[in-house]
Amino acid sequence: MYHCTLCTVAKALNLSSPEHDIELCGYAVDSRLVERGSLFFALFGEKVDGHLFLADARARGAVAAVVSHDYSGAGYGLLLLRVPRVLLALQELARLFLLSRGCRVVGVTGSVGKTTTKGFVVTLLEGSYRVSASARSYNGQIGLPLSILNSSGDEELLVLEMGMSLPGEIARLVAIAPPDVALVNSIAPVHIGQFDSVEQIAHEKAQLFSSPLTQLGIVNDEMPCAELVRGMGSCDKLGYSLSNAASDYYVERNETSLVVVDKEGRHPLPLPPLLGVHNNDNLLGAIAVARHYGVEWEAIGQQIPMLSLPPGRLEKKERGGVVVIDDTYNANLVATVAALKSLSLVEKQGKRYAVLGDMLELGDFFASHHKEVGRVALDCVDELFCYGDGGKEMAAVWRDLPKTVHCYEDKETMTRALLERVVAGDLVLVKGSRGCKMETVVEAIMDLVDRR
């Protein structure tokens, strides 16, 4: 945690010193997450004005707040710092905090698997370094600076996930936290409704290499537009692949081990305790980071059994003999296809079901991507339950075939219908975009199975 005084913050933001100085021991933009001694940033967003929650922030322990210079309401006992734009103040404070500490930053971006890859990087490094990382999937214009400010302050390496939904956002994050090592793990048509093409997405993701302070760029050689990404920035590059022997790191997998091959030789490692072959991809990128920082192969092998997936990412749950794969964190074409294909790795005695909600922010690709998921699902599951407008596109692929598909506009009705069919020994995958809140389906399944 970045402990400093309110006067230090005011000086960093080129503001006059407040009437009283006070030590700060936390930073928040959500009044519900305020802890005692925190500095609260009253952000003005599309849905919520943080200035309306100053009283709540104070009640929960905030001692000061950064507010807009034209705020004329009550202070509720908070010491107020007035700035032209609260978000820019948050970002500038985080940038200056990093600059004063001098720790090295590992930046991770990609269309899918950012949070998982970030977690793998941390696990492989933490046996050899003092490491911290951005919390959960705090990877945007607000979450990243908050992660910096709320980090411990004594780490040697800070692993930061960097995400985008609009052009220019990666470049802005790099300006706040220039990476020493930058990893691009995937390019896919995610948020494609905001971009003209996958190539434009690749160009934006490759802005992770734009800082002259970046020493090394690491690229997944199997992703679309890998060469375009490699060509960006002035830093050295290396690549990794699950199959391409021309890459700097590639994998030979057998039933008992994961053999990583590099220019120095072959390195047998234990199989990771993870569902989903695509997670070997994420692991290989993390290994490349660890090797750059001198982590020995033996130490990497010791850390691999400690790897885990974040909540809602191929999370295996079992109730009453029914196995549920909770992959509800988010959804896009690449991630949904990978989840469907992962079902073959899970032992089961009965049927395989997929419960799929809409994949959002696809623009003109909405229909085609949902139809493609429907086609892939034909080979991966016995029955398909669809929810939403995208579900209609998936279901259309199944209609004329001798397989069972169900399409619903109401999640509760869909869940009840599913539970009428599922029995012990069956396997159920649940996935959809955040806007569909498919985790409520998982919760309902767990609850209904418990009450049988």
Automatic annotation (TrEMBL):
It comes from the Bacteria. Pfam families: Mur_ligase, Mur_ligase_C, Mur_ligase_M. Residues 28-95 form the Mur ligase N-terminal catalytic domain. Pathway: Cell wall biogenesis; peptidoglycan biosynthesis. Its EC number is 6.3.2.10. It catalyses: D-alanyl-D-alanine + UDP-N-acetyl-alpha-D-muramoyl-L-alanyl-gamma-D-glutamyl-meso-2,6-diaminopimelate + ATP = UDP-N-acetyl-alpha-D-muramoyl-L-alanyl-gamma-D-glutamyl-meso-2,6-diaminopimeloyl-D-alanyl-D-alanine + ADP + phosphate + H(+). The keyword ATP-binding applies. Residues 108-290 form the Mur ligase central domain. HAMAP family: MurF. This is UDP-N-acetylmuramoyl-tripeptide--D-alanyl-D-alanine ligase. The gene is murF.
